[in-house]
Amino acid sequence: MPQTTYFKLEEPLLIESEGEARNFHVLPAGTPMYKDASFPEGHTRYIVYVNVKGGPALEKIESDKAQLIDPIWGYPVQPEDVPALVAETPVSKDELVRILKARKMTREELAQIVREWRD
Asked: 0.70 exceeded by the pTM?
């Protein structure tokens, strides 16, 4: 049996669809990602498999374009994103710790976020 190589997210990844960069959605840490292609522009495309229970509303689209790929974009969480992320997105304590460690935020930066926290 051939060996499969994949990557696991070490920290949550912000994802966007249709240009909604500040409308946060999060791919959780530990998600397996399979490398598909790297591009000269400096980004890499990965495949993520999703099992879906039930029947979500899906629109079937027929296209003459072979292999049309319309990816969503993913970004590491930046320090300036943390307040909005915590306020607007269900992020677990463990995910938040991973984000803060990955961004190497100082205690002072974290304290500043807490001071600016809006209820």
From this structure: no
